[in-house]
Amino acid sequence: MRALAPFALLVALLLLVPYGTNAVLAEEPPAPKEEPSPPTPEEATPETDETEPPEETVLEPRKAYVEATQAAMELPRAQQMPARRKAAQDWLARWETSGQTADGMSLLYLGRLQQMAERYVDAAASFRALLATEETPETLRAQAATGVAGLLSNAKSRKPLTAASQCVACVESVTAYLTTASGQATANLRANTHRTLGNYFSVVNDGDASISHHMRAAVLNPSLATASARSVLREMMGRTHSMEGYAPLRAGANAVLAALGALAQQNLEQARQNLATLEKDGAADARIRSAERALRSAERGADLQARYAKPFAMMGTDAPQWTLEHAFGDLKALSELKGKVVVLDFWATWCPWCIKSFPAIRDVLRDYEGKDLVFVGVTASASVVYEARYDLDDDLADRHEPGERARAVARLARGNREPDPEKGIFAEAEFKERELAAIQTFIENHEMTWPVVMIDKAEPAPKYALMGWPHAVVIDKQGRIRYFKSGALLREKPEAVKKFRKVLDDLLAE
User: Fold this and answer.
1) Dist CA 204 CA 404 (whole Å)
2) The two domains 61-313 and 318-509 share their CATH topology (first three levels equal)
3) Between 469 and 6, residue with greater pLDDT
4) Sheet holding 341-346, edge to edge
5) Looking at 149-153, 206-210, 301-305, which range is the least confident one?
6) DSSP symbol at 55
7) Is residue 500 predicted with pLDDT exceeding 70?
């Protein structure tokens, strides 16, 4: 045991020495570490952890467009458009100092950002650059064409394009593309482009070009046949209001209606086949319900085509007499107005565009005071009646502002619904009483100083070729129908108002 003692002492000493080739035993403690000197004011950093986000080195137009749109969607509706515009303007300022360029998809979204920033001439240049590049994929060219056509058809963007003499060049670019484009994948995009160009030519009073583009839209997408028919008939209806011009107008209209009717039937047959195929293959209920909705829509479209010939058939014929349900004033029958030019203005309390027509009607009545012209407001009973205060006229001037909205005053208890006055649901007799009272208040609040009548609710469409509200029928001094106007008469569309006044002037001079 004594022989092992020196060996044990040696082992203990080795365990106490730090491991490593350079390790040494030092009698003095190690020197303390040197503290760093305090930073100078210039080197001092803020105490918070907040730092500026790194600058984006590669600017992506598509990403910027999506982010601006999504951020705006989270705001109240009245703030969305200004927010999108500001975001686009800020991003474009960065883009222009970055020295970067765009092509393909990036160029498409650059154009959309420029449009969002209301830099319409720049947006048109971006879209047209895509159209002019043959290497651009067909889908991108189709979207660029739609973008240019949209700029042309919008009054706000068309004005600067006109000032910069760009409208003709834009039309030529889109027309050249549409002439050569093909492929089923872009058929719907091209159909929408044709429709939008049709709207543009309507504004610049080129009726033939407008009709041609609307017809092409319907050929590319038969589901647009009904909408195209409305636009085509509006163009044709504005061509003449003379007795001599009605015969050729009818002939041209019937040819157009026949073509559009065939397209509507084609769409209907396709919808039927699609539904039958889905049912046969045992498709999911959701797909079948969607196909059923498409079929109902196609059926309505086909039914509407038969009604579109009605206005032309009625041109120059005696205006039908209405069945009076209630008179809000002294006027009872249309026959009382023989010897005057009469405008029947069809409106409803639930129709905002009807209300928006009232200021222009007031302007016309003021300017034609003392002449043989009478406006008659014509309405019909509905299952809901609304009230709307006078300043709704101004609220509707900017649809992005929430403003005042029409409020339901009474609802008719229909079907198995029981009357519930606390919820504003009434049996027929009490509903009718409240409806008449609400309309009278409505007339007063909207300063409708012209006669107003309520006619049998079954009569507007079949008797007066009404296919939408508002709707105007112009009758000459002999009591014959001479003109139809579908849609609102708006102060902010002076050309349309001027055309309507021309009709009134001609008929008053007869």
Assistant:
1) 34
2) no
3) 469
4) 324-328, 452-455, 373-380, 341-346, 471-475, 481-486
5) 301-305
6) P
7) yes
Instruction: Give the mean pLDDT of the chain.
Output: 84
How far lies 414's CA from each of 166, 407, 408, 411, 427, in Å?
A: 56, 19, 16, 9, 8
- CA-CA-CA-CA dihedral for 175, 181, 187, 192, to nearest 10: -20
CA distance 348 to 343: 16
**Unique residue bearing structure tokens 């001027």:** 498
Mean pLDDT of 218-228: 82
DSSP 405-438: --EEEEEE--TTPPPBGGGTEE-HHHHHHHHHHH
Q: What is the DSSP string of 275-298?
A: HHHHHHTT--HHHHHHHHHHHHHH
Dihedral angle over CA of 174, 224, 349, 448, nearest 10: 50
pLDDT at 133 over 50: yes
Q: Which residues contact 156 (CB under 8 A, 6 or more apart)?
A: 118, 120
CA angle 321, 508, 473 (to 5 degrees): 35
Q: Which residue has the tokens 């011009």?
A: 245
Q: What is the pLDDT of residue 56?
A: 55
Q: What pLDDT is attached to residue 228?
A: 83
- Nearest CA-CA partner of 483 in 182, 240, 126, 125: 240
Element (H, E) at 454: strand 452-455
Q: Which residues partner with 386 through β-bridges? A: 408
Q: For residues 68 and 90, what is the distance between their CA atoms, to the nearest angstrom?
A: 11
The domain defined by 61-313 folds into: 1.25.40
Q: Is the peptide bond before 470 cis (omega within 30 degrees of 0)?
A: yes
**Domain positions in the chain:** 61-313, 318-509
Distance, in Å, from the CA atom of 243 to the CA atom of 254, rounded to the nearest integer, reads 17
Q: What is the pTM of this model?
A: 0.69
Percent of the chain with pLDDT over 70: 85
How many CB atoms neighbour CB 427 within 10 A? Answer: 12
Cα–Cα distance for residue pair 500/494, rounded to 1 Å: 10
Overall CATH class of domain 318-509: alpha beta
SS percent in the chain: helix, strand, coil, step 5: 60, 10, 35
Cα–Cα distance between 510 and 507 in angstroms, integer? 5
C-alpha span between 185 and 187 (Å, rounded): 6
Cβ of 496: how many Cβ atoms within 10 Å?
18
* Consecutive H or E run containing 464: helix 460-464
Q: What is the CA radius of gyration of the chain?
A: 36
pLDDT of residue 12: 42
Q: What is the pLDDT of residues 290-345, one digit of tens each?
A: 999 888 888 887 777 767 788 888 989 999 999 999 999 999 999 999 999 999 99
Cβ-count burial of 81 within 10 angstroms (0-12 exposed, 13-18 middle, 19+ buried)? middle
Q: Give the per-residue pLDDT at 124.
A: 96
